[in-house]
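[step 3/7] fold_predict: job queued, chain A
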Amino acid sequence: MGELLSIQNFLISLIKDSRVEIVLSGTTSTGLKIAEQKYSKNILASGPFPLDWWPFSFLAWRRIKPDMVISVDSELWPEHMQQARKRNIPFCIINGRLSNRSYKRLKYAGLLRKLLIPDNLHVLASSDEQKKRWCKIGLDKNRVTSTGNLKIDAISIRPPKTEEKNNLKNEMGFPENSIILAGISTWPGEEKFLLDSIQKIRNDKIDARLLLIPRHAERRTEIIEEINSFNFSFHKRTSKSESTGENIVYLADTTGELLELIKAADIAFLGKTLPPRGEGQNPLEPISAGIPVVLGPKCTNFSEIVESLLSFGAAHQGCSINETKNLLFQILKDPEKRHDMHEAGIEWKIKQGSPSITTLGIIKEMLFGEERNPS
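[step 4/7] structure written:
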């Protein structure tokens, strides 16, 4: 599903080209369901990805007769790539990325690497660093291009206007002049960490409030117990009654509303980045909304994006739980720092351009010999 969402802008643009017919496949039931709902009326066909085994790949290729195969992220399918090579058809990976584990395995794969990285493979890498990785495992540098991360285009949110932000604050029971810390897609243990942080900053006479958006809304009962242990006034979004009075905490115990709710925030903590977890959640959502980001020691799922944001000054990372808490404390107290991080995030987003447009241009060049759009 994540891959499908990341390519939606690219896919829609490709669908609009009358010269192109698309067969869309997937490997998960959720992804296939979304593909059917969103694209079935505008594509040739959709369905489960054919098994990467000769009888199935041969049958699929004989029926579909594709002119190009496009895979997403780092999907390597030796039998399908072999079918493409036999027919002299390009096999292209878009948003190409290699995890640390995949990179190490392929780097030392020996003779097997030739099978996994065939001569007809083209990779549109998600970053310059990823481009280097693909080249180091043996792919010809002329077949690798850095196009940027397609997930950047998948986030439609923009920094909110003052009125929109204040309306959200009022809805949550937060004063307009209060400072809102958002916990984004938090995991067990991180809610208590954020509640501790809010208590600390409020003890220092700073009017900070907490917007909690847990990764799993069904954890609401245990999170409410944590909130009650601090004696904070709060409101949960699923409550039948409207929020009245002033709240210290607002619990967004729903699913699918993160992009709208974080518009109320002045600073965000990125969930799943504190020990014992370290995979991290998507930092593009708060950054796209112009929100400064603080994260814990690890964010392995988005390491390259995080490193880039850190270098720009749009995000700050703690090396430990205590250091992360101190970072939150310092930034909550410093409006100038928050402003600088906000501006850095906007600058970073602008610099990324549109990876979808770049990717589309290269694919059309490969298909039709068109020159790439310089924009």
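[step 5/7] annotate
The CA atoms of residues 74 and 102 lie 9 Å apart.
The first strand starts at residue 23 and ends at 26.
exit 0
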